[in-house]
Amino acid sequence: MALLLVLTASTPLHAQNSEALIGAAKFCRRAAPCSELNGTNFYFEQRDRVLNLQDYRRSLDNLSAQGAYNPETRRPWSKQDADARWAQVQKDAVTHQANCAAVASLPFLEKKLKELESGAPVGAASK
Fold this sequence. Notes:
Layout: H1 2-7, H2 13-30, E1 41-44, E2 49-52, H3 53-66, E3 69-70, E4 75-76, H4 79-104, H5 106-118
Antiparallel strand pairs: 1-2, 3-4
Helix pairs in contact: 2-4, 3-4
C-alpha cells in the first residue's frame, strides 16, 4: 500500500488513498488498541468492544441451538443466520487488521508524501 500511495501521490487517486488512511486512523482511534485486532478478534461496533472470533462463534452456535430471538431478522436465530453472521465477522476481522496496519504505516507514508510535495528525491530526507 505504501508503494501505491507513493506512486499515485500526484494523481487524483492520492485523495482517495488519503481518505482511506484517514478513515482507518479514525477507526483505530475509536476502537480498542490495534494490538488486539490481530486477526483473531474483531471490533464489535454495537457494543464498542473487541471480541474474540472463536468465542463469538460459540455464542452464535448457542443462539441458533436455543432458537433465541434475532432482532435483525425478527425471528429466531437459525443455523443459516449464524453462518452468515460468522462469515461477516471473519471479514470484519481481516478488515480491522488491515486498517490497523494502514494506520501503523501512516508516519512513513506522511514522510514520503512530504518529500514528494517538496520536490526532494524520495528517500533523500531520510539520510
